[in-house]
Every structure is written in structure tokens, then in C-alpha cells.
Amino acid sequence: MKGSEVIQHAEAKLTEVLGKSTHVDSTALISGGCINHSMKLETNVGSFFLKQNQAGPSDLFLREAESLTTLRKAAIRLKIPEVYVATTIDTDQSGILILEFLTIESSNPSFEEQLGQGLAELHRVTKNDYGFYHDNYCGATLQKNQWSNDWAYFFGQQRIWHLINLIENRRGISSHDKSIYEQLLIRLPTLIGHNPAPSLNHGDLWSGNCLFTTNGPALIDPASYFADREFDLALMAMFGGFSRRVWDAYQETYPLANDWRERVSLYQLYHYLNHYYLFGGSYGATAISIAKSYL
Predict the structure, then answer these.
(1) Which of 154, 168, 193, 197 has the most Cβ atoms closer than 10 angstroms to its Cβ?
(2) How confident is the model at residue 200 (pLDDT cuts 50, 70, 90)?
(3) What is the CATH number of domain 3-100?
(4) Which are the catalytic amino acids?
């Protein structure tokens, strides 16, 4: 679908959803995404954020919309953009996702404290089991989300082993390395060592998916599911970008177990494997090093 056709499609969908004739007055490209094309739409009824994709999984935007809607219902102090339109992706038509447009503002100490408190409050939202309503995507990688009442099993099979299978098919994996991951999965119940509540996770919580806006701290681009809340925090620690005040506010609101740091690298393993699956390079060596460190 050409650019002009995408705009016409967006106008038609917004008119349908809003119940008011909507026309786009101007557009502005927004950089930063590596999977989708993004732009700001200025219309006669306000500003919107649009993502476009022609080559991703067919339900990519449907699943992102589901995560955003779930987070929005649960969030108290955090801003989650409202979903207006989410369509499927196929070979003949671009999929689009149209969201509330968020205006960026510089960070300040009160926003950082609010972010830590808001994440803690989000993690207090729980289910009886681990998983989510549908499988979804971390980036473009399929995440399996079948409900389970066993966290070690869910993490081992639907996160780590699922990725090992994907990596084996795309990049290959030695029998030695595969046996390391097999040994790790056997030890997971002992390594995890606690029975966490199935907390609502953002699922891809690096600093680029956290914005400071005129309405306070906001979360975007989720890959949500119910999991050990430490899983979100492990990714926060992986690439940095979160101030000490964010971490302190989280701990003050919803204190972590004393031994939570012992599991940080274990949970980061999933993201190193995913990065290796997507991008190759040294992520694979880092992943196997982490796995060996827990044996």
C-alpha cells in the first residue's frame, strides 16, 4: 500500500471508530523503530500516532493493541496510549496501528519517582496463572503464552526452549550448546527458588519503551503477559537508562525479595537469546556464557 493509500485507509478507519468524518491535514515521519514505519497524523479531530507494516506477522498490531489495552486498564500512575485502530497485515495491504499521540517532555525527579511507583502498581495486578490471552511478539519474535500454573516450566519451555528451537532453525546451534540449555532447564526450579505471583509485565521494558510526556511517564511497544515481575526488572537492568530514583521508588512501593539480583542474569538470558535470533553477532556467546554460569 502506497503512502497516500495508507492515509486514506487511516482516515476511513478513524471516521468509523470516532463516528465523525476525519481527514488528515499533515503528516510527519517519526524515527526510532526498527520494525515498523511511524508517523504523526494531524487531523481535523486531533493528533494521532500511526504505525505501518507490510511484512510483519499478520496479527502483529492486533497483539500489540491487546497488550496496550490490558496495560491501560491496569495502570494507575502510568500513561498508556489509547488504541483507536488496529488492523491485520497481509501481502496486499499494510497493517496499521493508530494510537493516541503522546507529547514528549523532559524528565524530572517527580516523573522518575512516578515511573517507579507506577511500575510497582502495575506489577501488583495479577492472575492465577502465567501467560496471556494470545501468543504475541517481542519485536518480531513470536512469544508463546499458553497459560501455566508453573513459572519455571513456563519460563523454561515457552521462553528459553522456544527460542532455542527458533535459533536452531535460523542460525544453527551446536549439540554441546544445546545440551547446556537442556541442563539449565532441568535446574530452573532450583535456580528460580521462589513461587512468584503472575504479575502483569510490560514484557519489553527497556528505556526506549518508556517516555516522559506532558501527562507523566508513559509505556509504549509492550509485549505483555503475566510473569514473575522480576522479568521486567531484569530487562530494565540489562541496558540501563533508568535512574536510581526510579529503582528506589519501585522498592519503596513494592519491595523485592532480598535475593532478586541472583535471578537478573537468568531472566536476561531470554533477551540475549532473542537478540541473537534477530541480529546474530556476539549475543549468542553472551547467552551461552550466562547459561553456563548457572550450572
Answers:
(1) 154
(2) very high
(3) 3.30.200.20
(4) 204
